[in-house]
């Protein structure tokens, strides 16, 4: 059963949000990805968010661009942790998305990541770290991921011109 739901406001968000999916896949966490729009499919949003916990999800990652109310609206309908990924918009480069997602009023929480690909990948990582609290296999995968990353940096200390 999928543990993490990745939702996005539009198919056009997938090139960004696929980085969350890739991270989860690398760490061995099952996920389900789909388009749910806060303003184009408001009823689907309500139904998806209100039933997410009963459907077996532990964490929700929601990516959106522009007036990005998707993560906040999802968080309003569920007790599950929600991570918001600001997608880089065409007009304001994602600053609009970031501010829309990060400025949640007190009482309904959305964990906001960085704009774009890095934010999506880190949302996947955060979700995996939550799953890892109760899953030894995922915990080992996260630790191995971090170790490999560290080793890569440590083995590239002697920079030379090509
Ligand atoms: C938001 O509007 C989506 O999250 C997307 O980032 C943005 C633009 O959507 P499209 O016009 O590309 O479908 O709802």
UniProtKB/TrEMBL annotation:
Question: Which reaction is catalysed here?
Answer: 5-carboxyamino-1-(5-phospho-D-ribosyl)imidazole + H(+) = 5-amino-1-(5-phospho-D-ribosyl)imidazole-4-carboxylate
Gene3D superfamilies for this protein: 3.40.50.1970
One Pfam family it belongs to: AIRC
Q: Any idea which positions bind substrate?
A: 10, 13, 40
Q: What does this protein do?
A: Catalyzes the conversion of N5-carboxyaminoimidazole ribonucleotide (N5-CAIR) to 4-carboxy-5-aminoimidazole ribonucleotide (CAIR).
List the source organism: Lacimicrobium alkaliphilum
The record's listing under SUPFAM superfamilies reads: N5-CAIR mutase (phosphoribosylaminoimidazole carboxylase, PurE)
The answer, when asked if DNA-binding is one of the entry's keywords, is no
- What pathway does the UniProt record associate with this protein? Purine metabolism; IMP biosynthesis via de novo pathway; 5-amino-1-(5-phospho-D-ribosyl)imidazole-4-carboxylate from 5-amino-1-(5-phospho-D-ribosyl)imidazole (N5-CAIR route): step 2/2
Instruction: Name all PurE domain ranges.
Output: 2-153
Q: Which HAMAP family does the UniProt entry name for this protein?
A: PurE_classI
Query: Any idea what this protein is called?
Result: N5-carboxyaminoimidazole ribonucleotide mutase
What are its E.C. numbers?
Answer: 5.4.99.18
Entry keyword set: Isomerase, Purine biosynthesis
Question: Record's NCBIfam families?
Answer: purE
């Amino acid at each position: 059963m999928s543990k993490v739901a990745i939702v996005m406001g539009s198919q056009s968000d997938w090139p960004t949000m696929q980085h969350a999916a890739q991270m989860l896949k690398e760490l061995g966490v099952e996920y389900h990805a789909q388009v749910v729009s806060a303003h184009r499919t408001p009823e689907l949003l309500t139904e998806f968010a209100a039933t997410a916990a009963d459907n077996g999800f532990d964490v929700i990652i929601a990516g959106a661009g522009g007036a990005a109310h998707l993560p906040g609206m999802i968080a309003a309908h569920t007790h599950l942790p929600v991570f918001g990924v600001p997608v880089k918009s065409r007009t304001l480069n994602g600053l609009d998305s970031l501010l829309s997602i990060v400025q949640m009023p007190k009482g309904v929480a959305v964990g906001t990541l960085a704009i774009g690909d890095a934010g999506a990948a880190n949302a996947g990582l955060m979700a995996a770290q939550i799953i890892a609290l109760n899953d030894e296999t995922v915990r080992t995968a996260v630790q191995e991921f971090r170790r490999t990353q560290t080793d890569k940096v440590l083995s590239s200390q002697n920079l030379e011109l090509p």
